[in-house]
């Protein structure tokens, strides 16, 4: 009786381990392969997008300082009534962080955030192993940056009724940055650990179609809202 019980107890862990190994093997088979899903490509796209966003943040910061020194002077990106950096820069949405009488332009925070993303992209290109918590925080930070950028863009489109050309570049750069971070998180960092549907989506290159539709939808929204005024 005791011998039978011991055999049953020993077989249970073996069956559990076999099931785990089978599930792991299935996930490995689902993982996309090829240059587009590797660390070099995904983190290179992230680096390029983050680099553009960082450069634009520096430009916006410089123009903010110029506007503070010369309040009545037009900026170089003031094209017409709709494409006007100064109109956007003078709105309260451009400086939402305030401490008493001090206010800080959004572009200053963009410099800080994008510097971090550039650094993470370089770490990814170096193929250094990232802890799971670090990769998760990177994706959440990218999502927060995207949400913040979209909020500012929606304010420009529907509240301020003026568009800053550099802000639009920053918005598209942040979008591509989020796409690259999401791609790397799933295909390189293998998070979430059991994301079978996401792995299938990337393996079949469905993500590429989604990305194209996403960017086209953003361009269409801008053109529908202010297209008639953009080229006057």
Automatic annotation (TrEMBL):
**Localization annotation:** Membrane
- The annotated region (Disordered) lies at 1-20
List, as start-end ranges, the regions of compositional bias called Low complexity: 8-20
Family note? Belongs to the VKOR family.
What is this protein's record name? Transporter
Q: Which residues cross the membrane?
A: 41-62, 107-126, 133-151, 157-181, 202-224
UniProt entry keywords in alphabetical sequence: Disulfide bond, Membrane, Oxidoreductase, Quinone, Redox-active center, Transmembrane, Transmembrane helix
Q: Which CDD domains match?
A: VKOR_5 (cd12922)
Q: Which domain of life is it from?
A: Bacteria
Primary residence: membrane
């Amino acid at each position: 009786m005791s011998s039978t019980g011991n055999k049953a107890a020993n077989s249970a862990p073996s069956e559990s381990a076999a099931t785990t190994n089978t599930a792991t093997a299935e996930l490995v088979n689902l993982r996309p392969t090829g240059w587009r899903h590797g660390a070099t490509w995904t983190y290179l796209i992230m680096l390029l997008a983050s680099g553009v966003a960082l450069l634009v943040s520096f430009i916006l910061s410089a123009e903010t300082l110029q506007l503070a020194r010369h309040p009545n002077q037009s900026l170089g990106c003031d094209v017409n009534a709709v494409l006007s950096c100064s109109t956007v820069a003078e709105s309260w949405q451009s400086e939402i962080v305030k401490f008493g009488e001090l206010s800080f332009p959004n572009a200053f925070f963009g410099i800080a955030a994008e510097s971090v993303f550039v650094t993470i992209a370089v770490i990814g290109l170096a193929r250094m192993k990232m802890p799971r918590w670090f990769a998760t925080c990177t994706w959440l930070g990218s999502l927060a940056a995207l949400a913040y950028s979209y909020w500012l863009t929606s304010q420009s489109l529907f509240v301020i009724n003026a568009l800053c050309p550099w802000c639009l570049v920053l918005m598209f750069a942040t979008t591509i940055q989020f796409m690259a971070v999401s791609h790397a998180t799933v295909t390189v960092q293998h998070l979430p650990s059991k994301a079978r549907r996401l792995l299938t989506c990337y393996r079949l290159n469905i993500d590429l179609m989604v990305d194209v539709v996403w960017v086209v939808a953003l361009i269409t929204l801008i053109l529908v809202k202010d297209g008639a005024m953009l080229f006057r």
